[in-house]
Amino acid sequence: MNVFVTGGSRGIGRAIVLKMVEEGYGCAFTYSSKKEAADETLNLCKKIDSKANVKAYRMDLKNVAEIESVAEGAIEAFENIHVVVNNAAVVRNNAAALMSNEEWKDVIDTNLSGPFFVCRSFLLHFLSNKMGRIINISSLAQGGASGQANYAASKAGLLGLTKTLAREYGAKGITCNVVVVGYVETDMTANYLSDKLKKIWVEYCPMKRIGKAEEIAAMVYYLTTEDASFINGEVIHVSGGLTYIP
Length: 246
Ligand SMILES: NC(=O)c1ccc[n+]([C@@H]2O[C@H](COP(=O)([O-])OP(=O)(O)OC[C@H]3O[C@@H](n4cnc5c(N)ncnc54)[C@H](OP(=O)(O)O)[C@@H]3O)[C@@H](O)[C@H]2O)c1
Description:
Layout: E1 2-5, H1 11-22, E2 26-31, H2 35-48, E3 54-58, H3 64-78, E4 83-86, H4 101-129, E5 132-139, H5 149-169, E6 174-181, H6 187-192, H7 195-204, H8 213-224, E7 235-238
Parallel strand pairs: 1-2, 1-4, 2-3, 4-5, 5-6, 6-7
Helix pairs in contact: 1-2, 1-8, 3-4, 4-5
Bound molecules: NADP nicotinamide-adenine-dinucleotide phosphate.
NADP nicotinamide-adenine-dinucleotide phosphate (NAP) binds next to helix 1, strand 2, strand 5 and helix 6.
């Protein structure tokens, strides 16, 4: 099996890449600008398996032509891609009344339009293979999050996209599911969540702790397996039982 993961240079995406390599999958992953971080993911993969079939691609999710050419390049280099994980995303928080056009567009383009173009770039390939797995990474913010109108809308949009692809392509052997992530310590939360908010998250979480990137990766991996072959169009929370942003 070969997997294509967006945003594999850091955080949850890196944990997904490492899990796939651990499981013996080939893995094409993308990064946007942090080449050193992508190189570090490659090094960690080689530590797991010195012969790991893994490759990093620079790709900006706001650039449709770049997405199409990277997808084509990955299909050619790996000969076959079986799974796509739309993981990369950004946040640009602001109150809705003050949110600039640019803040809105940047987040919607990266987090929602980008994953759509990634899906579209692989669908014909999946159709010709008569199989494919698409896994989109959403957030509890999809249910509403103050100061995050752009991010919440993009993450809610992924649910509609996922359920639509599940209906359109389920009969063709292609499944599409979405993983809704709770609070996990990564650069994203380190930079944008205050210590006060972090404490509140933990207090409201039924498990009274934050999640680990590896716990998200484990679910993503499960969705790629034969055991998950009849799971389609599902919204799966990996959030310690928390179902909304407190
Ligand atoms: N962390 C959490 O608590 C949490 C909670 C809910 C949902 N999530 C979701 O989980 C996913 C991963 O989050 P994370 O916390 O691991 O994020 P992160 O640590 O901030 O990593 C973001 C990744 O996205 C890439 N990226 C950023 N802008 C991009 C662009 N324009 N085009 C292509 N790639 C781009 C980055 O590449 P570079 O390294 O090159 O910058 C990096 O690999 C996201 O979908 C996020 O919404 C996270």
